[in-house]
Specification:
The protein is mostly beta strands and 373 residues long. The protein has one domain: Outer membrane protein transport protein (OMPP1/FadL/TodX) (Porin, Beta Barrel), CATH 2.40.160. Helices cover 3% and strands 61% of the residues. The chain has 2 helices and 23 strands. The chain is globular and about 70 Å long.
Length: 373
Amino acid sequence: MRNYLKSVTAMCLAAGGAHAGALDRTGQSVDVLFEDGRYVEFSFATISPTLSGTGTTLTPGIGSGDISPAYQQYGAAYKADINDRLSYAIILDQPFDASVDYPTGTGYFAAGSSAEYDSMALTGLLQYNVGNGASVYGGLRLQSAEANATIQFNTPVPALNLDYAVDASRDYGVGYVFGVAYEKPEIALRVSLTYNSEISHANDTFETSVALGTRSSVTEFETPQSLNLAFQTGIAPNTLLFGGIRWVDWSDFALTPSLYFQRTGGASLLSYAEDVTTYTLGVGRKLNDTWSVAASLGYEQTQGNLFTNLGPSDGQRSVGLAAIYTQGKMKITTGIRYVRIGDTTTVAGPFSPAGTFENNDAVAIGVKIGYTF
C-alpha cells in the first residue's frame, strides 16, 4: 500500500508530456525523491502527433500535410537515503523538445521547411527531512540544447520569399532547483512545490540565406523558469486523488539567430506570446497487491494568439489511463494518453493569418520500470 501511494501520482504521466505546451515534454517531475529506500527507474515513451493546417492568406485552401513526426522520449532516475534525515536523487530527462517537418510537393507555402530542437538534462537533488512531515530539497541541473532549421517560404511577394537554414550547435548551461514538501502518511497526503530556474545558453550558430549569404555568430537564449505544485491525498481505502499545476514562463523565451532577425525584419525563429499553465487531476485505485490503476485529465487554456509556423499549437485537453504491475521489488508502469491539440493560426511576416491548424491530436504510450533494493 505504501509503495502504491508513493507511485500513483506519476502513473498517468508514464506516457510522457505528450505534446504539452510550447516545447515542454516531461514536466520536470521530482517524484522520485519520495520513493522508499534505494530506488532506480527507467522510462520510455513514444508520441505520435497528427498536426496539419490549411493555407489562408497564403496558398488559400491548400493543406500542409502532417507536419509533426512521431518521436520518442527516454529517462532514468536514481534515489537513495544517506541517513534518516538526508536523501538524494539523480534524474536524467529530455525536458524540452520539438520537431516540425512540412512535406514537400503539397503546394503549401511552407512546404519543405523543417526544424528540430533538442535538450537533455541531468539533475542532482538533495532532500532534508525537517521533521513533522516537512522537507526541503534543492540542487543543480546541467542542461544541453541544440537546434536546426530549414525554412522555405514561397509567398505571393517574391521579395518576401525565404530560403534560409540554421544550425545551432549543442551548448551546456547550469540552473538550479528548489522545493518544499509536506507529507502525512496516515491519510496518504503529500504536497510539494518545486521551482526550476531558467537556464542560459549561448550556441555557436551557422546561418545561410539566399538573400544575405552566410554568417557565423552566437545565439543566446534562456529555457524558461517554471513552478510545479503537485498533490495527492487519500479519499477512501485504497483510493487516491492526485493532481498538479505547472506554470512555465514561455513569454520570456525567444530563439533569434542574428541573420534570421535581419532577413525577417526583427522576427524570432521561435517564440511564444504567453506563459503556459497546465492543470492535471486524477484518481488512482489499488485493486490488489499486484495491480493498481489510475485515470487523469489534463488542461491547458487556448490563448488565441498568432503562432510561428514552427510551433502551431495552442492549448490542449487530454485524458490518460495507466496501470502498475507490482511483483516483489519491481514495478512496471504503463500509460496511454490522448491529447486534443488546441486550434491556432500562424503568421508569416506581414501575412496574417498565414494558415489555420484545427482538429489535431496526439497519442502517447509509455512504460516505466522501477526497482527498489
